[in-house]
Inverse folding.
C-alpha cells in the first residue's frame, strides 16, 4: 500500500504528464518541435509514476536519498533504466512494441533538444509523420494506463478521454491519406481481404492477417500502426474479446481480470493426465520476452501469451532442465532464460 507522500508525489507526476500531453497537442501545428519534446516528457512521467507507485527510490538513478528526493536534488532514471525496472522490479513490463514506439519519440526528442531537426520547419509531410508517431505512442500508452496499469491510474478516465478528444485534429490530418487509399482498400475488400478500424488513427484501413487460430495481426495503411491480438474467451463470462500483448486481460463485458497464469490455463491445449504429468513441457518459458511459464501448446505449435511469439518447438535446458522456446543447443554451458548454465554457475562460485 502506498504511503500518503507517495500518493501526493504520484498525483503531481500524473498531473504534469497530462499537462505536457495537452501542450504537445496544442503545439502540434504551430510549434512541432515543442510538441515532440512535450509529448515524450509526458510518456516518461507516466512511466515514472508507475515506478513511484512501487517505491520512490525506483525513479532515482543511483544513491537514493529521501531528503534529496523530496528537495528535487536527484538524477532521475533514463528511459532504458525505467523499462528495466518496470520489468525486473515491478514485474509489469512494457511490451516490446510499445517500448519501440516510445523509444522512437525519445530519439526524436533528443534530436530536438541537442541538434537541428527537420520538424523545426513544419511542412505537411513532416506534420503527418509527427501525427502518426504521436497517435501510435498514445495508443500504446493508453492501453498501459487503462488496462495493464489500470489499478494505478484509476480515477483519471475523464482526463484520458479529454486527451482522446484533443487528438481528433491529429486524426483529421491523416484523412487526406485515407481518402487517397479508399479505392485501393475497397478493391482489396472485394478480393476477400479483411480490414478493421485502426486503434491508433481510427480509420478503417488496418489490413488483417490471420497468424494461427485466434491469433491475428494487422497493419494500418494510413498510419503504419501494427497490432496483434488473440480472440480470447473470458474465463468468467465466456465472451470473446481481444487479448493484446502484456499477458494480462481485462474483460470489457464483466470486468474479469486474468493474469498470465489464468490466460495460460485458458489457452493451453496440452492435456495433462496422471500419466504425462511429470513429462509436461508446457507451460514453458519464453526466450523472446523472458516470460515466465508463458508459452502454451496451441494448434500444434507453441504460443507465448505475453508477446505472442509463435514457435514450432520447445526444448529442455541442458543445465536446469526447464523448458523454453529458445535455442537450447549450448544451454548446458550458457543456460537459458532461467539460468546461466555451467559457465554462469562457475562464475558465481568464483565471485
Amino acid at each position: 500500500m502506498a504511503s500518503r507522500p507517495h500518493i501526493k508525489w504520484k498525483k503531481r507526476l500524473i498531473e504534469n504528464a497530462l499537462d505536457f500531453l495537452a501542450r504537445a497537442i496544442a503545439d502540434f501545428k504551430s510549434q512541432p518541435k515543442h510538441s515532440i519534446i512535450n509529448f515524450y516528457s509526458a510518456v516518461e512521467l507516466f512511466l515514472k509514476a508507475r515506478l513511484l507507485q512501487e517505491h520512490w527510490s525506483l525513479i532515482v538513478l543511483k544513491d537514493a536519498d529521501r531528503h534529496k528526493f523530496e528537495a528535487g536534488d536527484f538524477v532521475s532514471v533514463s528511459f532504458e533504466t525505467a523499462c528495466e525496472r518496470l520489468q525486473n522490479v515491478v514485474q509489469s513490463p512494457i511490451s516490446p512494441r510499445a517500448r519501440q514506439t516510445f523509444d522512437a519519440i525519445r530519439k526524436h526528442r533528443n534530436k530536438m533538444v541537442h541538434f537541428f531537426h527537420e520538424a523545426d520547419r513544419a511542412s505537411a509531410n513532416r506534420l503527418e509523420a509527427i501525427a502518426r508517431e504521436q497517435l501510435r505512442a498514445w495508443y500504446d500508452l493508453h492501453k498501459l494506463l487503462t488496462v495493464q496499469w489500470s489499478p494505478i491510474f484509476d480515477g483519471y478516465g475523464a482526463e484520458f478521454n479529454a486527451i482522446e478528444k484533443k487528438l481528433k485534429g491529429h486524426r483529421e490530418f491523416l484523412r487526406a491519406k485515407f481518402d487517397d487509399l479508399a479505392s485501393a482498400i475497397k478493391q482489396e475488400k472485394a478480393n476477400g481481404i479483411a480490414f478493421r478500424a485502426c486503434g491508433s488513427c481510427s480509420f478503417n484501413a488496418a489490413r488483417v492477417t490471420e497468424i494461427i487460430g485466434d491469433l491475428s495481426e494487422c497493419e494500418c495503411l494510413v498510419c503504419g500502426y501494427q497490432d496483434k491480438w488473440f480472440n480470447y474467451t473470458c474465463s468468467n463470462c465466456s465472451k470473446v474479446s481481444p487479448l493484446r500483448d502484456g499477458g494480462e486481460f481485462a474483460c470489457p463485458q464483466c470486468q474479469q481480470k486474468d493474469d498470465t497464469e489464468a490466460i495460460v490455463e485458458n489457452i493451453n491445449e496440452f492435456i495433462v493426465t496422471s500419466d504425462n504429468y511429470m513429462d509436461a513441457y508446457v507451460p514453458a518459458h519464453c526466450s523472446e520476452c523472458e516470460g515466465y511459464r508463458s508459452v502454451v501448446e496451441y494448434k500444434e505449435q507453441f504460443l507465448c501469451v505475453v508477446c505472442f511469439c509463435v514457435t514450432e518447438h520447445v526444448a529442455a535446458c541442458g543445465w536446469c532442465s526447464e523448458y523454453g522456446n529458445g535455442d537450447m543447443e549450448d544451454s548446458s554451458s550458457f543456460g537459458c532464460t532461467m539460468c546461466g548454465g555451467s559457465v554462469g554457475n562457475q562464475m558465481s562460485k568464483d565471485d
